[in-house]
Amino acid sequence: MFRIQSALLLILTAATLGCGSGKPNLIPGRSPTIPVQGKITLEGAPIEGATVMFFCEKLKITSYGKTDATGQYQLTTYEPGDGAPAGHYQVSVKKVEQTIIQPSDHPAIPPKSKTSQLLPPQYSDFKSSDLKAVVAEGGTNAFQFNLSP
């Protein structure tokens, strides 16, 4: 009985030590991420509820964040707030409002709605937005974008 308990204790100790190496666990297929944060304003005023997207053509990856009441955002790629992999990014910012224009009479049929852009439309697409960022290991990786009409 003592041998079984000792063997079980040894296995549990080895498993515990293996999980606490202090190094981030890299999942195969995922690029390591770096924390990225920033602020979005429109003519100097913070924008709340905007979606910020960072797209890296080389990595074919998109990281995103949502602005708070002060216009601040943090990027997420795989896990909430984990940041983005190092690279050159095209940035888009959009904020939309959806309004129901005709309610549905049937629960299985959705109401008709209208989507409105609340920011200048050129910022809603990577191709038309001139916003760019370089995420670098060891850099500050804080990007502020002041949008204009």
Query: For the record, what is the CATH homologous superfamily label?
Result: Immunoglobulins
What is the CATH architecture annotation?
A: Sandwich
- Total strands: the figure is 10
Could you give the order of the helices and strands? HEEEEEEEEEE
Number of domains: 1
The biggest sheet, with number of strands, parallel, antiparallel or mixed sense and barrel status, is:
4 strands, mixed
Number of helical regions? 1
State mean pLDDT (0 to 100 scale).
Answer: 86
Overview of the structural elements:
Helices cover 12% and strands 36% of the residues. It is mainly beta and 149 residues long. The protein has one domain (33-147): Immunoglobulins (Immunoglobulin-like, Sandwich), CATH 2.60.40.10. The strands form 3 sheets. Strands 1, 2, 5 and 10 form a 4-stranded mixed beta sheet that branches. A 4-stranded antiparallel beta sheet has the order 4-3-6-9, with no helix packed on it. It has a two-stranded antiparallel ribbon with strand order 7-8. The radius of gyration is 22 Å and the shape is globular.
Defining traits:
mainly beta, Immunoglobulin-like, 4-stranded mixed β-sheet, 36% strand, 149 residues
Brief summary of the model shown:
With 149 residues, the protein is mainly beta. The protein has one helix spanning 2-19, and strands spanning 37-42, 45-46, 51-56, 61-66, 72-74, 87-94, 96-102, 112-117, 132-135, 142-147.
